[in-house]
Amino acid sequence: MTNDRLKWVLPVPFLIFAIGVWLISKIENDVAAQVARAQLQQREGYYSQALNLYEVIHENYSRSQFADDALWEIANIYYVNLYDIDRALLYFHRLVREYPESALAIDAYLKMAEIHEVELGDLSQAIALLTQALTYSTSFDTDRSILFRMGDLHLKLSELKQSMQKFEIVVRRIPDDHLAYRARNRIGTICQIAGRHQESLTYFRVTAGQTSCSECRIEAHFGLIESHEFLEEPEKAINAAESISDQDLPIEEKQKIIRRLRNKLEYLQAL
């Protein structure tokens, strides 16, 4: 083959590649324009039109970078705007089944868990879906947030051992942030339910004495009061109430609790 002929033959593969790249780019730009139209319809409340556009995007461009986004938006329209729980679950399931590598997969599992917990009351299935979400998590914070939710669900199901395990992991991984102190309070509550009131005091004291979270502190103080009452230690219950900051609880509410505890102490002393 002569050098002149080589000049024409060699560029052909590169030309084909360049044309392919151009076509893909053009298709993606066209899809992006359709997504923008669907989003506009969605924002303006034309949900049927938006659903139709997203369906077309997914069906006609299933390998596009926007295909998983289309399923996500369809599912959310059914869930948030139209309150069609069955269809919402169907499309969230399709997203994780058809696009398991999508960055939206974990969010779809979290949404399905929310639906099963809040809308359907199926806490066991919610836990199963959160377990799936954990396998997709690439964030330490997300892991702990999911584990905390799982702990709460196990607690609602009276599965104390499983609940305790989840909260202990949350505390162990980062022991001194807001979520860890909330988890300690949950562990204290589990101890109370199990009748281990002395043990519960340890967890409530740490939170009451260390966290900057007002909500966590007041919850811990109430836990201390309750456990001391169960242990028939009214003086310590009064001390726990008196140690509540006025910034955490209105003085009137605090004084009401203290009066109740003192009345109880006087009653016990009179027996």
Write the layout of secondary structure elements.
Layout: H1 3-9, H2 11-43, H3 47-60, H4 67-81, H5 85-98, H6 105-119, H7 123-136, H8 140-156, H9 160-173, H10 178-193, H11 197-210, H12 214-230, H13 234-242, H14 251-270
Helix pairs in contact: 2-3, 3-4, 4-5, 5-6, 6-7, 7-8, 8-9, 8-10, 9-10, 10-11, 10-12, 11-12, 12-13, 13-14
Structure description:
The protein contains 14 helices and no strands. It is mostly helical and 271 residues long. It has helices at residues 3-9, 11-43, 47-60, 67-81, 85-98, 105-119, 123-136, 140-156, 160-173, 178-193, 197-210, 214-230, 234-242, 251-270. It has 3 domains: 32-102, Serine Threonine Protein Phosphatase 5, Tetratricopeptide repeat, CATH 1.25.40; 123-174, no CATH class; 177-271, Serine Threonine Protein Phosphatase 5, Tetratricopeptide repeat, CATH 1.25.40.
* Number of domain units: 3
* Helix-strand pattern: HHHHHHHHHHHHHH
Query: In what range is the share of β-strand residues?
Result: under 5%
First and last CA, distance:
115 Å
Low-confidence stretches: 14-24
Q: Strand tally, please?
A: 0
CATH domain class name of the largest domain: Mainly Alpha
CATH fold category name of the largest domain: Serine Threonine Protein Phosphatase 5, Tetratricopeptide repeat
In DSSP terms (H or I, runs of 4 or more residues), the helix count works out at: 14
* Helix/strand structural class: mainly alpha
Q: Largest sheet, described in full?
A: none
